[in-house]
Amino acid sequence: MVESEAPRLDAIFHALGDTTRRRMLRALADGEKSVSELAEPFEMTLAAASKHIKVLESAGLIRREIRWRTHVCRLAPEPLARAHDWLGFYERFWTDRLDTLDRLLREEDAKAAAEHQREGEKDERDDD
């Protein structure tokens, strides 16, 4: 990802860093909503909701349209795709790390099983 994307990604991750804004995005995944509808589950003022919406809008995560006197918001998925792509690079890192951990744990289990079997065979010989 080019360095010019960095400020955009910073804005996206800043917007996603707040629980209220993530829940608003989740609500918008079901379809467009008015600012009042977005504010309702949080028991917040329209002014407070508007501040959250401005952060989401600045990050490009939502689009707002004014219909008469109602501000209607809808999800803009493109920036989420950029964030997903960026995280995808690190997903490969963690997948590789988890694969290594899985292999080490399996080797450790195999050694423990072999040791347990040797101890069982030794106990049988001692009983004879």
From TrEMBL:
PANTHER family membership: SLL0088 PROTEIN, TRANSCRIPTIONAL REGULATORY PROTEIN
Name of the featured protein: Winged helix-turn-helix transcriptional regulator
Positions of the HTH arsR-type domain: 1-95
GO molecular function per UniProt: DNA-binding transcription factor activity
Organism: Amaricoccus solimangrovi
Cited PROSITE patterns: HTH_ARSR_2
